[in-house]
Structure formats: C-alpha cells, structure tokens
Amino acid sequence: MALASQSSALSISFRGAQPLHSKPKFLYSVPSISISKSNPPLKGLVSLPYRHHKPLRIFASVSVSNPEVRTGPEDLVASILSKVTQTDGGVLLTTEEHEEVAAVAEELQKYCVNEPVKCPLIFGEWDVVYCSIPTSPGGGYRSALGRLFFKTKEMIQAIEGPDTVLNKVSIRAFGFLDGEVSLKGTLKALDDKWIQVVFEPPELRIGPILEFRYGGESEVKLQITYIDDKIRLGKGSRGSLFVFQRRS
C-alpha cells in the first residue's frame, strides 16, 4: 500500500475592497468554489457581491509541492524482487543497480519484526536470488574465473528445526556435466537478530559417479534484517547483502 503526503500553501490578497465606515448588513451568498491543484500554482478569481459596496475580490493562489511518496512493505518487496530476478544472483547488475537494491533493502529494515531470529517464518526452503558479493553464497564456483567453467543453475538454503541449515548450489560443469555443492551446518542464535552457522566440509558431486568432500569447516554470521512469508533479507558480518525468496 502506498501512502502519499503533500503540503499546500494558500495565499489570499484583497483588491478593490472599500473601507467600512458603518456597519451595513451583508446580504450575499457564497458560491461553490472548485480549485484544481496543479504545479505551477493555479489562480482562481471569486467575486462576492454585497449591497452598497463594490464587489470584494479574492485572489487565491494554491501551490502544491511535489508529493513525498512513502511506500509500504508490500510494494518494497515487489520492488526488490523485480530488481534481482534473472540477474544470476546479482552478478549481472551494475554498480548503480546494486545501490538501488541496497536502498530498497534499507527501507524494508524499518518494517522488520521484533526478534526476527525467533520468527517461525525463518524455517523452510529459500532461493538465494541475490547477493551483493557473488562468492559469498557459492565460494570459488561463483568467482569470475569459476563462472567460466561452472554455470550456476540454482542456489537453495533450507532451514529445518530446530537448528539445521542445508545449503545447495546446483551447477553445470564445463557445459555438459550436472553437479552440486552442498553444505550442512548448525545454526545458533547470537541475539534477537544475528545468527551463526558452522558448516561441515562441503561435498561436491559431479555427474553420477564423482562425489567427495574437501576442505574444512567454515563459519558465517548473518543478521536477519527483514522477513515475511515471501522474502528474507540478510546482512553478512563482512557487509554482504542477501535476498532470499521462499520457494513455492
């Protein structure tokens, strides 16, 4: 729902009015006045006749400043999704477009529920539709070099009660081999907004045969800045911005 607020300035000047030396009885009727607000100001002329005196003319000037539009959370959610959809998780966006996403996310923070870590909406499956730092959700596979050999098909995060997090990045290796990188982690609430997830070593599967674990444990900290039944916003400890969209 969009709410708009606007301010109007009304100035009135009197011309041709005669000074009153006595107290005559005024007999006049006020006509209906319709003033159309526009920019630049519109001037309206109204004559009020009365006995024994010349008409009193009122010049009314109405000016309206540009309305300041305040957008509600539903419109902001639709806006941010329209900016990040079909952008390869944000990789295809320009610097200016990343700034636009960040601005909408900042507005949405104002509508975040209290103690989002305790909100039951956190559970479920989410598509990672945007990240301001490409390598944050997919590691080296999402780097500029990695994207030359591994095409990202989808990035999914599933949060299961009471404290399990499953991250999965589906890829196509070398243009013809389907693969998947998955991580399983344990979630811990640090306060009412911040969570910490400690992940086990990642598991890589390429094709129907090749499957192995590599590396060691990893840890991430994420602040939940907004959540509803459609999207969830997160901000990493290093400043990365995430947009998660609930899977239908």
UniProtKB/TrEMBL annotation:
Domain Plastid lipid-associated protein/fibrillin conserved: 77-244
Keyword Transferase: no
Keywords recorded for this protein, A-Z: Plastid, Transit peptide
Pfam families reported for this sequence: PAP_fibrillin (PF04755)
Spans traversing the lipid bilayer: none
Listed InterPro entries: PAP, PAP/fibrillin_dom
Coiled coil start-end: none
Main location: plastid
GO cellular component: plastid
Subcellular location: Plastid
Keyword Ribonucleoprotein: no
Family: Belongs to the PAP/fibrillin family.
Listed name of the protein: Plastid lipid-associated protein/fibrillin conserved domain-containing protein
